Write the structure tokens for this entry.
Amino acid sequence: MISCQDFFDILNQYDLSFFTGIPDSTFKEWMKFLVDKDEVVLRNLIACNECEAVALAAGYHLATNKVGVVYMQNSGLGKTVNPLTSLCDPDVFSIPVLLMIGWRGEPGKVDAPQHKKMGKITLPLLETLQIPYWILEPDLKSIEKEIKIVIEYFKNNKSPYAFIVKKNLFQEYKLEKQKRDDYTLSREEAIRIIMQNLNNDEIIVSSTGFVSREVFEFRNSRKKDHYKSFYNIGSMGCASSIGLSIALQKPGTRVIVFDGDGAAIMQMGAFTTIGKYAPSNYVHFIFDNQAHESTGGQPTNSDSVGLAQIALASNFKMAVTISTKKELNKVLKEFKNQKGPLLILIKTKKGTRSDLKRPNKTPIQLKEEFMNFLNRKS
Ligand SMILES: Cc1ncc(C[n+]2csc(CCOP(=O)(O)OP(=O)(O)O)c2C)c(N)n1
């Protein structure tokens, strides 16, 4: 393992001190370091998605002639294919960027099903993109040697280069700045209250990470009615679009989307599609803990954006921001008779049970059960 400070010192020596991206649990200690040291010795811009992060690094290069570092989980690499090929590629503007890619689903290692394919194709994808890569080794000497090669590559080729990061590369980093949590309700508690208040004929489309795992556990502990859920364990940010399309096809069924703030922001443009087609049976909950909690609690930009106002301006029929159990119970009563699209944004505190399980059925099993149920509905 290497220390975050040592790794940063090497990067910084070569003027690599601008960072942006979307976090990954593979390098959560490194993410803690970047957040802690932002505006102290480095710059860390919190991006809305990986595609944007590459563009931010490109803008940084245009303005400074320096190279930005873009971190991401390999699931986000797909999102960057467009800016990498049509912005940074040597056949277009030739813009150097250092990518730091967390390797989930590494062949031979056990990981969740949504990571399998990308894990397998991460290196071949980089090869197809003609982006050279190096798998970071837990050895500072070899890292320093490699960085010299990378800097030379940037000088000669002015194009992207990738570092692949495996689990457990970084030693634990202890935060110097602690952020206060202003809210009292937990996401799991909010999910439980909402689900206890449902009529039992709604379906739920839940977002990637802890949200889906908490819904799964709730259903498991009670009626085991997983067939009423579509667990969108991958494709971060897409739960609302899946829910919208189901709602349009099944106007007699209430479709409830459970989202995270990071995921909602990642695909915020979806609000415009929801507002445009405006199905009255669509209800969107966002559990806003101001963090990407599922990958280690790194901050999102949700504290500087009014998602409820954006929803209203996008033609949602009702959008509220709440933060207490009392407010949630009140809204749940009101929303029973409200026509959608509705947005209920719940400010929640951070924190997740450490023994939270993952769905123990395969995605295909879950999908088939869900489709069988949905096919019987109007
Ligand atoms: C395209 C993409 N980028 C990154 C990830 C890694 N990832 C999984 S869950 C997650 C955080 C989700 O944050 P949020 O939606 O706020 O929900 P929370 O974890 O806070 O409940 C991230 C970054 C991913 N799955 N897909």
